[in-house]
Predict the structure.
Amino acid sequence: MKEDAPLLEVRNLVKHFHVGGGLFGGRAGVVRAVDGVSFAIRRGETLGLVGESGCGKTTVGRCLLQLERPTSGQVLFEGRDLTTLDEDELRPIRRRVQVIFQDPYSSLNPRMTVGQILAEPLMVHDIVTDRERRGQRVRELLSHVGLLAQHAHRYPHQLSGGQRQRVGIARALAVEPALIVCDEPVSALDVSIQAQIINLLEDLQAGFGLTYLFVAHDLSVVRHISDRVAVMYLGKIVEITDRKSLYDVPRHPYTKALLSAVPIPDPALEGQRERVVLGGEVPSPLNPPAGCAFHPRCPIAIDRCRAEGPELREIGPGHRAACILA
Amino acid sequence: MLHSAGVSTLLSVENLQTHFVTRSGVVRAVDDVSWDVEEGETVALVGESGCGKSVSALSIMRLVAGPAGRIVGGRVLFKGRDILKLSEEEMRRVRGREIGMVFQEPMTSLNPVLSIGRQLTEGLEIHLGMTPADARRRAAELLGMVGIPDPERRLAQYPHQFSGGMRQRMMIAMALACKPSLILADEPTTALDVTIQAQILELMKDLSRRFGVAMLIITHNLGVVARYADRVNVMYAGRIIERGSARELYARPRHPYTLGLLRSVPRLDEPRRARLDPIEGQPPDLTRLPPGCAFTPRCAFSVARCGVESPPLAAVDQGGHVSACWEAAHLDRVPVRSAAT
């Protein structure tokens, strides 16, 4: 494989969920959670994936891991299409692609000690078969994430939220992955702890050459950690580019509105700031609007937007936006 | 808000103490805390989980869950009356009528089997003695006021037919229904998306100005508070550790915890920093607080005295800015914004 080939490439990913029509006879429908998403992540890079609840960003992450099987499209990891592999073939891939969840409490087994939680993947994947060496590896993992050897004997409920997230990160690291899908990894944590975890993720990336897909709704955090950023709205990417362009010269009206909605912790600045407050709400993905899905809330929509779904097109070097007016 | 003549104190919390009895000991969730809200003013209680901000709000409404939780000391003067001394009957008239409430998760605070209309008219009929027809007219008016389109039709619907943002609008309509003089909002936008957050906050600010309602906003989000609060109280481990006007507190924090919070968050208006500046260590375990100042183990500025003696809230200027830190006088040389790279 060529050095500059992307580690991961997603091509025209689609995931539809069928709902309703059940026992109570609701009308059956199709939720277009992910509706034709394409992007690539280079080795060692962090791609931020942002959007509001229901935009499909978490489903994209789950489709990469094949925790959800996509309806159509390809997920090429190191050149292999994961959507064509069966569970047996996926097992070795799962060592290479890991995930960190938002709520470390519900993703850690409450009846296992931290030591057992970290030893489990080492056994399952036959990474360290010797018991004593496994203990050593667990201690090593704990120190990588800033925990002490004695934390191995604790249960998740005896740890603080930040410490639990560190355990979640150590568990992902245990199998020496190449790519980690970070699904809102700091949004459940206290503000004073978020910065600790972000710094840790960055240190680990530098130390182990990790690649991240960073799924989040907090645009300030995403700007800090990402090299490139994709913005999703109703199952589609509406803008994708490098960090600097996205935050300095956003081109899609939805990106602009999102950025303008982020509060800045400075009363003097906030007092002068003009806000673009979007009217309306995110429409249901069961029944998305015709044309551009954003047009009912868009401050600059014209007649054509109601009829025509815009393509995600190149508007500058490495900068793509799905808006006919961008 | 200026403390000029003619503005009077609406709510005054004095030496409030709320304790919880747990298996691992007594938790002083609110530990001898005093603060106030002037008429028409917006005051914030800011802090992280477990700092006592929500228990403070529950204490004021006398909704602390017993028998584990109990208000063990202090006074809560609302319009000069100590509401901790009211009978349960009198207290019910304060809740909803004189003090409106907006909570974080509107779905859990709305009744799923009552129509939107009924939930709005109930308070109007009970508290204000309106006839069902008048109450219904007023309910439609309230829904329109909080920006819910087609209010007549919406009155017949149920909470599950409303989106998260609309439910929060409905909560605000309920809180305003009886023309209260204070609205208590506990993390009013935390469960909402950014674009909806902005809508709800602008709405609350607009309504509080139009009707001269005072607001107490409880939040962990420093950004939210910056735009909407006149004064800010920062809580840590059950105590207020700093208070000041929003402008003063954000520009010149005089407690290491406030300073640390402001420095730790990445900001969109600043150049991106190479590295974030976190507050080290873990939030305190309230059953095992260290002696002296509870922030000492995480504090970059602590001196020997901090581990022994708890600092009182003391004035750092003439304008009502107070800080509970022995080293407050030395913090004015520390920049809030670290050098960008």
